[in-house]
Each structure stands twice: as structure tokens, then as C-alpha cells.
Design a protein that fits this description.
This protein has about 375 residues and is α+β, with helices and mostly antiparallel strands. Helices cover about 15% and strands about 40% of the residues. The protein has 3 domains: about 1-115, DNA Polymerase III, Chain A, domain 2; about 125-250, DNA Polymerase III, Chain A, domain 2, CATH 3.10.150; about 255-370, DNA Polymerase III, subunit A, domain 2 (DNA Polymerase III, Chain A, domain 2, Roll), CATH 3.10.150. The protein has a 16-stranded antiparallel β-sheet that branches. A 5-stranded antiparallel β-sheet has the order 5-1-7-8-9. Strands 21-20-19-22 form a 4-stranded antiparallel β-sheet. It starts with a strand and ends in an 8-residue tail after the last strand.
Length: about 375
């Protein structure tokens, strides 16, 4: 195998797939990038068995076709540090040699025949989706995914696919995030599936690696398989696994009687939380909100006598109320909301709170976040 490619084109392709390569695995072959040159194209692939990504480019000059498995741990950073210019990669026996100007690297390869068979795209019922919208929906939910391996279904994001809408839901039992958008697509029928979050987090990198020509449509195409969800964006294909359920009935925990609505500026709220939380207890991470007509007081108290407080204006007229939250959970919600204003809906100090971003007209945007309160001292 021997081919020549520009450094920036090789690095761009490697950046799309490299994050999938596992650093720890019982199968050493998975630590490699699969490199294949054939029929005028360079194809790079990586997999950790749960996620696989394949991308290709025709910006390559092929002298000898072939396929090789190159350990990523040295290959990827070496390419990234090269100066701009031509890169020649050639295989000699069980070694690969990379030459660019005066820079040279020789690296042992692994047995390419041991590389697992990559998942194939099930090209049935492909659905075109706006890439930016899908990435927004993933960002609006993924921070609420559970890390509890004893509840694997909660480690994924629930997709509710309907003929006219898409809803994504994630929860770790302390918080919940739901994102819903109207869709104009030819869905063959309603479907629900739990998608591995780690795979979905690769999508922004895949979309970011598109060329200007590939990105012109602004769309990705989604393919629903029996046990995988796949995305095609330009010359890149991403496969991610589906998780076994069941997913809990999240609608049962969303309160319908929160009658105290507080409208506030997201940036002001977030900055004040950041400032006041400096003195919060490191174990409970509790911050207290005291709400009354036209104002919200935020306060936090540490175990060694430190305390802080601040106040922000809010739009609220009603009964005074105090409630405590984990400030880290609050910040996760706020930094994944794009709207400038939010509505905080409460019932009392012991009941789940709802946070909903609103647009300039005060209309909800399709995003709902639920957060369980912390018990305040003395309650």
C-alpha cells in the first residue's frame, strides 16, 4: 500500500473518527485506525464495537492499493503535529512509514484480518433531518443521562418518533430533560428506541467535518435498523447501538399543578449561581432560592462558616417560597438552553421544579427540564 495526501485532508478525516478509538480494551486491534485505499478513495474507520465511524475522501493519490490497521495512539498525534504539505504513507511488511518533508515516522501495524467486520448501513427508510436541529436536541437532553450502569436504559436517550414530531428524553432520576420538535418527514410508522448517548455525542464532530459542498444542504440522513441507529453526513457514516429497555414512564413524573411561574433572565441567573455557589457545601452542592414578588435571593452556606448571597430581579407575583437545588444540576440545564429567558415553575419546596426556555414572545420552545429539589435545613 502506498498513497499521498495533503496533511490537512488527512488530519480532517482522522479528527472525525479518532475519538471513537478506545484507549482501554481487551481487544488490542480496536486501538487501531483502519486505513484502506482503493478505487481512487482513502477510507478511514474506527470502532469500539458500540460505535463505529467510517469516512472517506478522494483527495488522495494512490500508488498501490491496500488495507492496514495502524495504532492510533501515535499515528493520530503525529499527523496532527505535521506542517502543511504532502504526506506519503507506505507499507513495508508489518510496518507503516509516514513521510512529510523532513519528518518521518515508522510504526508497527497490527494484523488487519483481526479487525472486526464493520457495521453496514441499512439503507431503508432514510429520513432527512436538519443537522443543526438534531444536534440542538441532543445537547438539550444528553446532560441528564444517567451514569448508573445497573440501569442501562437510563444511560441512553429515548427517541419517540412520530409521523409529525420527534421527542428526545433523558433522565437520571434526579433530573429529566425533554426536547420536542415538529417534523415534516415520511416516517413509516411510530417507533420508540433508546439510543446509546456516547454514539450520539459523536454527531457534532461528524457534521463539523463536512466540506462546504457537503454541508450545503444542512441535512443528515438517519437510518433506523433493528439494533442500531445510523447517520450519513456527506462521506461519513456513523453507527450507534440501541439499548434494551424499558425506559420509565417519564410523563408520570412531570407535574401538572406547578402554579408558581417565575420568569427570569438566563444569563443573569446563571452568573449569580456561579458566584454564590463558591461557598456552597461541597458534598450537598446546595444553593437556596428565596422567591417573592419581583425578586429572587440566592444564597449558599459552607460547612466551615463561609456563606454568600445575591439577588436578581424576576417577573413574579405570588406567595413567597424557598427551595433548594444542586447548583451543578442547575448550571447543566442553563448552559444547554439557547433562549435568553426561562420560566421556573414551582409548586412548593418539596416538589419537582420545571424549567422551560421561552422565546422573545414568551412562547415555549419545545424544551422542558425537570429538577428535583434538595431538602433545606430545618425542613
Amino acid at each position: 500500500m502506498k498513497f499521498e495526501i495533503q496533511q490537512e485532508d488527512l488530519q480532517k478525516a482522522l479528527d472525525i473518527i479518532a475519538n471513537v478509538v478506545p484507549t482501554k480494551t481487551t481487544l488490542p486491534i480496536l486501538t487501531c485506525v483502519l486505513v484502506e485505499v482503493a478505487e481512487g478513495r482513502l477510507t478511514l474507520s474506527a470502532t469500539n464495537l458500540d460505535i463505529s465511524i467510517t469516512t472517506n475522501t478522494d483527495k488522495v493519490t494512490i500508488k498501490d492499493e491496500g488495507k492496514v490497521a495502524i495504532p492510533a495512539i501515535k499515528f493520530v498525534p503525529f499527523v496532527r503535529t505535521l506542517r502543511s504539505g504532502s504526506v506519503v504513507i507506505s507499507q513495508k511488511g508489518k510496518q507503516i512509514q509516514l513521510v512529510s518533508g523532513k519528518a518521518r515516522m515508522t510504526e508497527n501495524t497490527m494484523n488487519v484480518d483481526e479487525y472486526p467486520a464493520l457495521k453496514q448501513l441499512e439503507e431503508k427508510n432514510g429520513l432527512d433531518m436538519e443537522a443543526a436541529l438534531l444536534i440542538d436536541m441532543i445537547n438539550e437532553t444528553q446532560y441528564s443521562v444517567s451514569r448508573d450502569e445497573t440501569r442501562p436504559a437510563l444511560m441512553g436517550i429515548l427517541w419517540e418518533i412520530r409521523t409529525d414530531s420527534l421527542t428526545l428524553v433523558a433522565t437520571d432520576a434526579h433530573r429529566l430533560a425533554r426536547s420536542t420538535r415538529s417534523m415534516d418527514w415520511a416516517v413509516p410508522g411510530d417507533r420508540e428506541m433508546i439510543v446509546d448517548t456516547a454514539g450520539l455525542r459523536q454527531l457534532p464532530r461528524v457534521v463539523g467535518g463536512l466540506s462546504e459542498e457537503e454541508a450545503a444542504s444542512g441535512n443528515v440522513t438517519m437510518f433506523m435498523g433493528e439494533n442500531q441507529l445510523s447517520f450519513r453526513a456527506g462521506s461519513t457514516v456513523l453507527h450507534t447501538r440501541l439499548l434494551e429497555g424499558p425506559f420509565p414512564d417519564y410523563n408520570a413524573v412531570i407535574p401538572q399543578d406547578n402554579d408558581k411561574d417565575i420568569t427570569l433572565d438566563k444569563a443573569d441567573f446563571s452568573q449569580t449561581i456561579r458566584r454564590v455557589s463558591i461557598t456552597a457545601d461541597r458534598i450537598t452542592s446546595q444553593i437556596k432560592l428565596g422567591i417573592e414578588n419581583g425578586r429572587m435571593e440566592l444564597s449558599a452556606r459552607g460547612t466551615e462558616g463561609s456563606q454568600s448571597e445575591d439577588e436578581i430581579p424576576v417577573s413574579y407575583e405570588g406567595e413567597a417560597l424557598e427551595i433548594g437545588f444542586n447548583f451543578g444540576y442547575l448550571q447543566d440545564i442553563l448552559k444547554n438552553i439557547k433562549s435568553d429567558s426561562i420560566v421556573l415553575s414551582l409548586k412548593d419546596s418539596q416538589s419537582a421544579a420545571l424549567i422551560k426556555p421561552v422565546n422573545e414572545a414568551g412562547e415555549e420552545t419545545g424544551v422542558l427540564c425537570l429538577l428535583m429539589p434538595l431538602r433545606l435545613a430545618g425542613d
